[in-house]
Amino acid sequence: ERRRRISRYSISKKLPLPPSPPGLPFIGNLHELGSLPHQSLSLLSNKHGPLMLLHLGPIPTVVVSSPAVAQHFMKNHDTVFASRPSLKASRALSYNNIDVAFSPYGDCWRQMRKISMCHLLSAKMVQSFASVRRDEVAALLRRVSDNEGTVLCVTEMLNELVSNVLCRVVVGSAMGDERRRLISTLVQQNSIFNTKVFVEDFFPRLRWLDWILGLDEKLKRHVKAWDALLEDFIQDHSISSNDSNNIIHPSADRTDFIDVLLQLQKDPNLDFVLTRDHIKSTLLDMFAAGTDTSFIVLDWSMAELIRNPKVMKKVQDEVRAVAGGEEMINEEHLPKMSYLKAVVKEVLRLHPPIPLLLPRESTEECQIQGYRIPKQTRVIVNAWSMGRDAAYWEDPGEFKPERFAGSALDFKGREFQFIPFGAGRRICPGMSFAIVVVELALANLLHRFDWKLPNGMVIEDMNMEDSPGLVALRRQKLELIPLLAQNIH
Ligand code: HEM
Hey, which family's this protein in (predicted)? Predict the structure, then answer.
């Protein structure tokens, strides 16, 4: 066994490392990331290839930019690359990496992933929240109706919809505007913190610089605000569920995530200790991973449809035909809306909400396409770039949902040119949860209303650039005028 290990080691040592762009002393290639790393890295990989090695400070980081290479990392050698690096912001926000999204590959992750998949985001749970989605979409439609003919900030409205759904699913009840806004702000700040360059992540011995720059204090305050909020939720919840006088509990006919986690904590069959911190880290993950991502898909969908009036007409025709004069689209209508589904896929291809997915890290040395990938190499997969790869997509920059018509191509992690939810062991467990909210909301907004740009604005004025951060929201807020569709009363 020892001989075998030694010989494997010596063979791999002879292999070259992947090609690297030249770096600067000390900071290596850090300066190449820019404010929109998915775009800068895409340009860099055009020069250095789909498997390139960067040095972010002293940290070796492999950047994967083609579906063929991604398949090696996320399928053939998935176990080697199923871990996550421990970064300062995510560590602080995940109660020291004990959540699902940021924990290293190992027993803790396995347990937390099982809880998420089997108890929180299972098909049965997603189905059980159908009435929450229906109520919240109905409330959204009422709000739009009330503002018919006036300029409406669609971005804010969609953000509100998704965070209302998430709040009710996680906490079990609707939330006051102030709290909901606080959650939205915290979620948005998470995205910024998760891509902020902390000196400690690259030069641990210079961690005092983060303190001097005031970054430590900001992060501490942010984490404290989350913790206070989550503690409140858990405490309110324990009180209200023990209070027999509390007859009108909004979740009386459903269990919400806090319920499930508090029940599991007491379950004698659970083979590990589910602490308060595990619960808080899971709740934080659900808010953070669930809100921004789904609402970003809705926001880009509305923006692309406005820019592409023929697609808008076609999808409205489909939605209205399937609805058959009914006032509201329900979830049973959705399987019949194949063009709407193609629109959502096309949005996910061009605008994956997490364009670089979540970073991975290798737990062993590995050989890929003749290159040596050392242990503890960080891995960034550029899903944004792969969704626009001309070798896989015809007219990759064009918004053409037809490319998905009659095609089995899906986002479930099997076809590597299209992996907005990632792939392999760490694929997003919230995929079905997200898709049904997106499809239901979009179908209803298109069914009930026609949408126009505010007076004086033309399609060419729309800024289709991304904003910086872990998630890529459209830089410009979307403002539109809703008009009640003619045949709806
Ligand atoms: C359109 C919406 C969404 C998109 C595009 C998305 C995308 C992603 C991506 C790219 C990853 C990383 C996958 C990887 O490393 O291969 C991820 C992980 C994750 N997502 Fe989502 N997500 C969405 C919605 C949601 C929702 C609604 C939830 C829960 C309510 C959720 C919960 C998670 C969790 C817990 C992880 C971590 C999984 C792990 O590390 O094992 N996501 N998501």
Answer: Belongs to the cytochrome P450 family.
**Please, which residues bridge with residue 61 across strands?**
54, 378
Residue 102 backbone zone (phi > 0: left; psi -120 to 50: alpha; other: beta): alpha
Any atom of ligand 1 within 6 Å of the Cβ of 111: no
Pocket test for ligand 1, best of 83, 166, 428, 471 (most atoms within 8 A of CB): 428
Neighbours of 192 (CB within 10 A): 16
Q: 421 C-alpha vs ligand 1 centroid, how far in Å? A: 6
- Bridge partner residues of 466 (DSSP): 474
197 vs 357: CA distance, rounded Å? 17
ipTM: 0.99
Contact status, residue 417 vs residue 308, Cβ threshold 8 Å: no
- Which phi and psi angles does 125 have, rounded to 5°? -65, -45
Predicted pLDDT at 140? 97
Structure tokens at 170: 């996680």
Supply the residue whose CA is at minimum distance from atom 31 of ligand 1: 430
* Amino acid 334: pLDDT: 97
For residue 315, report the distance from its CA to the centre of ligand 1, in Å: 27
Q: Is the pTM of this model over 0.90?
A: yes
Phi first, then psi, for residue 449 (nearest 5°) are -130, 155
Q: Which string of DSSP letters, residue by residue, matches 344-364? A: HHHHHHH--SSTT-S-EE-SS
78/360 Cα distance (integer angstroms): 10
- Pocket lining: 358 vs ligand 1, CB cutoff 6 Å: yes
Is residue 428 annotated as involved in ligand binding?
yes
| Low-confidence spans in the chain with pLDDT less than 50 | 1-4, 6-8, 10-11, 244-253, 489
3-state secondary structure of 449: strand
Ligand 1 contact, 413 CB (< 6 A): no
Take atom 18 of ligand 1 and give the residue whose Cα is closest.
Answer: 428
Q: Is 218 left (phi over 0), alpha (psi -120 to 50) or beta?
A: alpha
Q: What is the per-residue pLDDT for 255?
A: 82
CA angle 241, 245, 251 (to 5 degrees): 40
pLDDT the model gives residue 252 = 45
Chain center to CA of 441: 18
Measured CA to CA in angstroms, residue 439 lies from 61, 197, 220 at distances of 36, 35, 37
Spacing, Cα 430 to ligand 1 middle (Å): 6
Residue 245 is predicted with a pLDDT of 42
Q: Tell me the best of 125, 421, 442 to mutate to test the pocket of ligand 1, counting ligand atoms within 8 Å of each CB and taking the most.
A: 421
Per-residue pLDDT, 470:
86
Residue 113: CB within 6 Å of ligand 1? yes
